[in-house]
Amino acid sequence: MATTITDSQKPFSLDPYHVSDVFGFILPAPLTELPPYYQPWMDIAQHVTELIYSHTLRSHILKMPLLNTRFLESHRELRLAHLALSVMTMGYVWQEGENDTVKILPRNLAVPYWKVSQRLGLPPILTHADAVLANWKKRDPHGPFDIENLELLVTLPGGDSVRGFFMVTLLVELAAVPAIKSIPLVINGVQCGDAETVTSALEEISQAMEGMTDALKLMHAYVKPDVFYGIIRIYLSGWKDNSSMPAGLVYEGIQAEPMEYSGGSAAQSSLLHCFDELLGVKHEDNCGAFLTRMRNYMPSSHKHLIQDISLQPSLRGFVQQEASELLTAAFQLCVTKLMALRSYHINVVSCFITVPAARARQLRRQGNSSQEETVSRAPTALEETGTGGSGIMSFLKTVRDRTRDVSLPLDNRAMQKSTNGAQPQNTQHTTHQTHLQTNRF
């Protein structure tokens, strides 16, 4: 029987965590300009790619004035400043590839970067929260939120493929919005013992997970594997667990000792962390430690949401206790769809990293040192790892297998009922799907 949440059990809400009803974890309406005082930053950040190709980015940054961060007032100003300083930093470090890196980030970049990072609770390196969540604008402000009407605020080498990589990842985040909005319904339903509400919310979540997988499939249409592997990846790489920069990077004016930070990783998205905590998926040993560390690369409010979901009564335990066929089927469908999403991510990684890496090794064995094939430009230090520093394929397969561990047994009839019942329940989700489908090649 359902119960009522008491005053001591306030309903769980997304309000304290800066999660948008429309955009989820995506930063709504990012700024495109900073106050005029910070124009020297934007002048460089908006031309990083050209300056890298002309081998002059480092010299331009060294001439840049040391600016005070106290005139940055709003959260959106801080996010744009962090994005701009991040792409400058990645370009400065990797301008000449893995064989001519730097040991020191100059004071005029390092000091303001550190201060902005401290105010946001983000590390001083390019993160998913920068490159994806806060790096977009609509070409037509009144047009749809789809890949043809989106563009980046700042970019890195890689042309259309780097735009495609960040924009497709953004659309995966957008497809997840109905699921994120359903999490409080699940938590409050468990608190009240309302199996019907929990079942309905879990069906919405599983639908959204399928939408995320559909969005991820766009990667093949908008990103060229050889360009991603041979050009883009190095600019997403960090200075932790990277043999190209074994000592890390000195942030001049902050401390004399070098610091280590991981590069960009899908594990920096809060989405799957939320789903894992909700469903009770446990990651242990090296995988668990890496995923936990990646939470330090998220906006602090999103990290707190994940932590607070983990403190709620067990959804899986509630499902077992209720022993309802429909509820169990809805839970299991979520597990199945999350496994499918993770399996498809493995497919994408194979296409964009494993296969090009094998080709790059083949070219080296043949003694082909020419730059004619794009993959041959790739850094050798990252062949077996993700840009975040993980041993990528073994990591992804282990994470998927731990997802399977929370599966609950059910008969085929219940699963069929849940699958048939999981139809779109609101126009917002349908709209997101329509935008994805109209742009699928």
Task: Describe how the helices and strands are arranged.
Elements: H1 39-45, H2 48-53, H3 57-62, H4 75-94, E1 104-105, H5 107-120, H6 128-131, E2 137-138, E3 150-151, H7 159-175, H8 177-192, H9 195-216, H10 219-222, H11 225-232, E4 250-251, H12 270-279, H13 285-294, H14 300-310, H15 315-322, H16 325-365, H17 392-404, H18 412-421, H19 427-438
Parallel strand pairs: 1-4
Antiparallel strand pairs: 2-3
Helix pairs in contact: 1-4, 4-5, 7-9, 8-9, 9-16, 9-19, 11-16, 12-14, 16-17, 16-18
Q: Provide the structure class.
A: mainly alpha
Task: Give the rounded overall mean pLDDT.
Answer: 89
Main sheet: strands, sense, barrel? 2 strands, parallel
Shape: globular
Radius of gyration: 22 Å
N-to-C terminal Cα separation, in Å? Answer: 48 Å
Low-confidence stretches: 421-441
> Taking strands numbered 1, 2, ... along the chain, how are they ordered across the largest sheet?
1-4
- Summarize the amount of helix as a percent range: 40-55%
Give the topology string: H per helix, E per strand. HHHHEHHEEHHHHHEHHHHHHHH
Q: In what range is the share of β-strand residues?
A: under 5%
How many beta-strand segments? 4
Helical element count? Answer: 19
